[in-house]
Amino acid sequence: MPVARHKLKSFFLISSIVVSSVSGFELRGGLDQDFGFNSLSGPASSTSVQPSSLSNTSLRLSGDGTAGAYNYYFDFGLRGGGDGMRYRGTTSLSNLRLHIEKEKHYLTAGNVFEHFSQFSLDAPVKGISYGYKNISSIVENMTLVFGLDNPSWNDLFSSKSSSVKRMVAGAEVSTKWRGQTTANLSYVFTNDLTSYNDVPEFAYNTVALDWENQSIAGLELRGSSAFSGRLTKDTADGTVGFAHHVSAISVDGLNRAELEYRRVSNDFAAPAGSYLQDRQSVKAKLRYGYSSDLSFSAGYLFYHNNLNRQLTVTTFNHKPEIGVSARRLMGRRFAAGGSSYRIDSRLSGEVKSSDHILGVNYSDRVSIIDFGGNLDYIFARSKRDSVDNMQNRIGGNLSVSSRFVFGGMNLRPSLRYAKHYISADSTSGDGSDDISVRADIGWPGIGISTNLVAGYNDQRRGKGSQFSKFYSNLMLNWRPDFLRQSSFYLRAGFNDISQSSDGDFSETLISTGFNLEF
Amino acid sequence: MKNSSILLSLLLSVTLFSSKADAFWWLFGKTKDDVRFTYLNINNMPFDQSSNEITFYQDQLQNGIIEIRGRAVAGRARIGSVQISLDDKESWQPATLNDDGAFNFKFRPVTDKTYKIYIEAMETAGKTNEISETYKEVKVSKHDISSSVIEFMNKLCNFYMQKNQHAFMELVSKDFLGDEAVLDRAIRSDFDLFLNIDLRYRINSIAMDGNGGVFVAIYYNRRAAIAFDGRTYIDQGLTEFVLTPTGSKLELYSMKQPVIFGVSYASEIASGVVQSDDNNSVLKINTQGGVSVGPVSGMEISQGKVKAQNLRLGSHMGYRFDEGRAYEIWRDDNWDIALQFEVDDKFKIFFNGMGTHEVLDLGIGTLEDHLVAPEFGYAAVEFIELTTRGKVFVIKLRNGNYVLLEFVDYDNSDQSAQFRFKYQPDGSRDF
Lengths: 518, 431
Hints:
- Helix content of chain A is 5%, strand content 66%.
- Chain A has a 26-stranded antiparallel barrel.
- Chain B is mainly β and 431 residues long.
- Chain B has three domains: 140 residues, no CATH class; 108 residues, Immunoglobulins (Immunoglobulin-like); 149 residues, Nuclear Transport Factor 2, Chain: A (Roll).
- In chain B, 13% of the residues lie in helices and 42% in strands.
- Chain B has five helices and 28 strands.
- In chain B, the strands form six sheets. In chain B, strands 18-28-27-26-23-24 form a six-stranded antiparallel sheet, with no helix packed on it. In chain B, strands 2-1-4-8-7 form a five-stranded antiparallel sheet, with no helix packed on it.
- Chain B is elongated.
- Chain B starts with a helix and ends in a 7-residue tail after the last strand.
């Protein structure tokens, strides 16, 4: 860590030198300072709140400007103090990025997020990227990336061995034909530099082709196909996998039709990508706008796993749905409502389940009162080992609010009630209730806004387990005119919890601080 | 593979050879001869998929430029001009136009100024598109996106803790990578499973790509009380999200493991795994609702610390795990488990010494799904009935050691059953 701090100092110095020799430079920043006081009564194991006094500081700097033919911007962030979660009492780097552009070329260093394809590179790396853009050329874009795939800067410098150190290198070329078809070809090489948790080290090669076509009026076709090879470095054993995605989207004003097919094999492996392994799915959606106030929708999703038949059972899922939504119902300006019916069906070996979900929602305004609510009825049935279970579930919430202006003060009181009820042979009467009141009070002229929430939550489930909570929160925010975007705040919360499992406790959380923007 | 190649070929054929086709066959007879756009994007964001008010952040813009690209068509007529207004139709500027109606227009916006944008495409006979349909109000903020991300994450966490399903799903993109409908079920299942959820987070880092996608990494602390027994589990970790902008709003586009929303079906909604030192004690729910805390499950199949072994037992055969040998149960009483075939074609596993072994059903899966056996939830039973292939059980033996047992298959012809198992001799729950 001392080495890291030394590097940061150097970065600051270099930045200062650059700043002094360029024009059009604009520096922005933010300093957040938070002081927290948490107290707890009851067993500490019942809560994730740590009874303590905490202080947390974060500094953000960003800037942009031009230096000759170069445009640039940078982001830099530091976090310090204890936040009750990680790195208590230490200072750590939270962000670092420098981006430089000159005509068709750009270079980014630090926290680099380049999206090639969901199947090849869709994650940030700590490293460097170079890009070339020329929209009038057939090769419209070319990007090179090199870095380490670590989610935080702390992991990068950590000497612990429970996470993998993974190098990522990749390239992407984008072309466009006749202004209507684009194709991106990307290659990513990923190499594990360390092992962890008994998982062997791997080396991955991924090639992806993404394409998009808009040559037919109103129809957009998109697709992506990828190949991956994974080599176990110790044994030189290898696996190959494939992934495909094709979709067709047609939009006409309020109307939209969509078809999608995905298939990602068990052996497809691209650690820097973003995808769901071992799944084949088909999705269709249709939204038909009868008028600007009335539309109908229908959809169907089917997916299953076990593409290579290695598992003993395959899980199939079917999810059809239909719906209608309407605005300005019965000529009422603020009236809006809708209804939907969905089936959520799952078949896995001898385990079968299907939920039938009927939902309605409605919101409106009567005089100065806004109200809205929704209600879901679910008939859930599951069959396992010849045992048939059925449940009726009802869930919904209702909210009522209004708004008043008294001179320079705005007041918005609201009331919310939510209920969830489960009825079955063995658990009749299970469910939950939540009721809360909220008041938002603001004095816009002097930049003060507050809100106060108080509520009670009660939950009852099988075997007599019960949980109830009284909760209250206060938030006060002051944004003074003379500091424009900066603000001072106070937050306070009190929760009093009782549980049937002898874990009653109460917690008080207060935090105050400021956020200075410059 | 073959099927998908055929599908791909068909779609490419349609693309290349059907430029005169009508995409709106599904609109039941509507025809389209008016001036219109086959596509229209602002900084790669489709117009029709964004709201009327769009906020860009200064550091999202490459070279500080906003670019509008599209293609106008007018049936058989030719597009003569495309003009853009940035000031509520007060003035118009020409876009660069190609012969086929494709056009682009770039401008360098001033921060915190609002641009009221309209686009007019005119065919050579003077007919234009419906200009009001192209309206967008665009603003560029010089502040970084952090405050918008924090506000969005606060809403996600609060709606989740309040179990407000409708409000939560309003924040999820229709293109959510794990499928919106699957996440909806996972959230509903979480709300049934957890009596109470307490979730606190802190932003670790934020990054943006050139198309406006926002990458967010957070540290979280979670406390969840399980509904069926009231037991409280605590976990913490580092996880990642990708958010996508739709106008001035953000939406949830993808999540990685460990997931903090929809943990009941984590493997069906997470589009990757965050490998970090911080993810060694995260909450996991198996397919049957069993709860455990352990290392995040990766895409790489870990063989774990204990090697899996195969076991085939005939009826009335027993097995002792610490000795690694089989017994005939009427000759010796040293076995831990024994198989019994019954007259109605059912198999049972009996446990020796009634009630001295404890068992937990982990549901359908494989041994490799479980690197750490759950700490709680075991019950002393005399036997379990084997009806479902692929089920995994964890057995707490009377000597205090743990066994993971997977029921693979059975054979009626010779009254035998096939198992895989892992035996951990050191008394720990680590496999």
